[in-house]
Amino acid sequence: xSDDERGxxxxxxxxxxxxxxxxxxxxxxxxxSEPLTAAQVNERLPGELAYTTVLTILSxxxxxxxxxxxRVGRGYAYEPVRDEASHTAAGMRSLLEGGSDREAVLTRFxxxxxxxxxxxxxxxxxxxTGAGTGKGAGSGAGTGxxxxxxxx
Length: 152
Hints:
Blueprint: H1 20-31, E1 36-37, H2 38-44, H3 51-63, E2 67-72, E3 75-80, H4 84-98, H5 102-111, H6 115-129
Antiparallel strand pairs: 1-3, 2-3
Helix pairs in contact: 2-3
Protein name: BlaI/MecI/CopY family transcriptional regulator
Region (Disordered): 129-152
Keywords: DNA-binding, Transcription, Transcription regulation
């Protein structure tokens, strides 16, 4: 039975969503306090994947520049280049930049926030705005964000 067939009624193959395995591998690595080998990652993933499947995913993530690897014995231990928040923020920024109407995308995004998330966003924006005057811990200094980054 293939990895795609495990746990499916009647053994029917159901393809996983795009990036689902990569997301699971990244989640396992983000939750770890140290770099993990392919076998250690496999132990932390739900279901039963072949070792070679996990190794392929780790190799692809490394090739994409999302993981660094360290020699451990004859193999490698892997760790993410960025933390989960940085990875998610980069994905959000990429989606925003890919839209043809930035204002419409941001308007829709904000309109669909929960009240709690909207309050958090207001606070973060206020902190960032105060950065120009030397105020606010979340200044975004060195991030390329702000009025001088060449974006409208």
